[in-house]
Amino acid sequence: MVAKLTDVAKLAGVSPTTVSRVINRKGYLSSKTISRVEEAMRELAYKPNNLARSLQGKSAKLIGLIFPNISHIFYAELIDKLEHELFKQGYKTIICNSEHDSDKEREYIEMLEANQVDGIISGSHNLGIEDYNRVTAPIISFDRNLSPDIPVVSSDNYAGGVLAAQTLVKAGAQNIIMITGNDNSNSPTGLRHAGFASVLPDAAIINVSSDFSPVRKEMEIKHILTHNKPDAIFASDDLTAILVMKVAQELNIQIPEDLKIIGYDGTYFVENYYPQLATIKQPLKDIAKLSVDLLLKKINNQEVPSTGYFLPISLLPGKSV
Hints:
elongated, Rossmann fold, 12 strands, six-stranded mixed beta sheet
């Protein structure tokens, strides 16, 4: 069996990134580390990839995309738009599905560094600041603060929460509930929650975990509708809002007469296959374009402020409010 770079890393007791740096004479490395890696290469008869070596000193024209769930409608659409923007600029993509697993995310980062990608766009946020600060490739984050040195691109989640609350109040709703997913103050859902609460400080906020199966989610939503008896619900994502609509119809609750519903994301899928759902639309095309523009500036060593870039949201009115 032909030895791989990861086999060398395991034998030498170092990361794949370190092996790549030894091969390409990149960055500071102790003589002891270099000797261990070279000895492991000899022992395994490892031959560095000729294409990779031919790219030494040149751009690989590769960008890594790390996201937590590439089958999710929202992430799938965003990845599609990122790939399209990158291809227009002459870059190919390596798509990494971290599945909310910190070990998997860490391995993907090491793999991307070992393959000397030109940059990374990460929408997966399971690792700490120290992990991301060790990455030498330029990085742009989608939606979360990975590190103080990494720019963040997102929609204006706080404004989205405000707009959702204002829309339901204007429609005459009295008993309004927000259903959130996995929530913390630094998450997109947390910011939507904060915006919503700024308009409706006394409204109930109920967590229905993003980790629940659709069946478990339906059970939780049914409990909310039958026990809390809301006349309006703001769901922090469209798929949850669609489940609310499904359960409401099964309970013979009329939408929007008895229950008004508003979601968040406004993907192409929802806009075309569930046009009846009112939702806060994220500008995915603009998010993708800005993320790529900022990353290319970093790749070209141009100044990019390490700050948040918040793009405006809008309301798709639908027929559920």
